[in-house]
Design a protein that fits this description.
Keywords: Phosphoprotein. This is EAL domain-containing protein. The termini are far apart. 53% of the residues lie in helices and 19% in strands. By secondary structure, the chain is an alpha/beta fold. It contains 12 helices and 9 strands. Bound molecules: ligand C2E and magnesium ion (3 copies). One magnesium ion binds next to β6.
Length: 285
């Protein structure tokens, strides 16, 4: 009897595993076609300067409108894109689309709007990355300083020769480099100093417990102090409440991003935000 049970379990297990593999393969086949079928699109989340309460940047966040499954989150398909190498063409599309959009915003906003694009480690290792960045900037006409590239600690810590060369080249181009999800990976303070990183983005896991969580409050303050000591700016991610915003302002955090300030939104919503901002700035007499 016991033997039978085991056999059935094995059968069940293998058939569900088969299904998992099949759906994985199906998703991969779909992802290969997603670009040419125009199924990818970008949402943009505002980054607000704490001192002026103005939008100073937006982060581009990719979505996949799957013909059968509806909208799929990047947390599901970016890992698949990395595994399959599809991240390179997808990443290039994201970069170009974001740069083009940022150019359009320059004429609406009163001040320059930076656009932030996430780069995965795989993209970073692609030997053509700097060429891709240069041509996206060239073709759209966007100023390099208005393109922010978000790297992770893991990407920087990989001390392969190629990583160094790429960072040097990006520095040469003059793009704005930031470290995403800061505090969740391994960082060497040496690297931060060396690579001309302009901003640290404190991971939302540190922000979510604020203001009550005293340990995360201490970590947040320490990151801000360190960043400022190294002449870097700080962005808090995942700001969801007014109490968090008030505390971060008190700590001297430079920029905030999160649902409280604005959800990832289609470009038209950002247009509106920028236009409203201009209206607010007009003198009232
Ligand atoms: P990320 O770069 O750390 O982006 C921030 C994530 O936090 C986004 O999730 C955003 O929607 C979410 N978020 C923003 N505000 C809040 C908040 O107040 N509370 C909470 N709980 N979450 C908030 P999303 O859009 O699902 O993206 C997930 C991750 O996927 C990103 O994390 C990024 O690592 C990756 N990703 C997104 N777009 C791209 C892309 O174009 N290329 C690459 N390589 N990765 C991307
Ligand atoms: Mg990011
Ligand atoms: Mg990221
Ligand atoms: Mg992040």
């Amino acid at each position: 009897h016991a033997k039978n049970c085991g056999k059935n379990n094995a059968k069940l297990y293998s058939s569900s595993l088969t299904m998992q593999i099949m759906s994985h393969v199906k998703l991969e086949v779909g992802l290969r076609k997603a670009l040419q079928n125009d199924e990818l699109y970008l949402l943009y989340q505002p980054q607000i300067d704490v001192a002026s309460a103005q939008v100073v940047g937006v982060e581009a966040l990719v979505r996949w409108r799957h013909p059968e499954r509806g909208v799929i989150s990047p947390t599901e398909f970016i890992p698949l894109a990395e595994e399959t190498g599809l991240i390179v063409p997808i990443g290039e599309w994201v970069l170009r689309t974001a740069c083009r959009q940022a150019m359009a915003w320059q004429s609406i906003g009163k001040r320059p709007v930076r656009v932030a694009v996430n780069l995965s480690a795989k993209q970073f290792k692609d030997e053509n990355l700097t060429q891709i960045v240069l041509s996206a900037l060239h073709d759209t006409g966007l100023t390099p300083e208005l393109l922010e590239l978000e790297l992770t600690e893991g990407t920087l810590m990989d001390d392969a020769r190629a990583t160094m060369v790429t960072l040097e080249q990006l520095r040469g181009i003059g793009v704005y480099l930031s470290i995403d999800d800061f505090g969740t990976g391994y960082s060497s303070m040496n690297y931060l100093k060396r690579f001309d990183v302009r901003a640290l983005k404190i991971d939302k896991s540190f922000i979510s417990g604020l203001p009550l969580d005293s340990e995360n409050a201490a970590i947040t303050r320490a990151i801000i102090a360190m960043a400022h000591g190294l002449k870097m700016a700080v962005v808090a991610e995942g700001v969801e409440t007014d109490a968090q915003l008030v505390l971060l302002e008190e700590y001297g955090c430079d920029m905030v991003q999160g649902y409280y300030l604005g959800h990832p939104s289609p470009p038209e919503s950002i247009n509106q935000m920028l236009a409203d901002q201009c209206a607010m700035d007009e003198p009232t007499i």
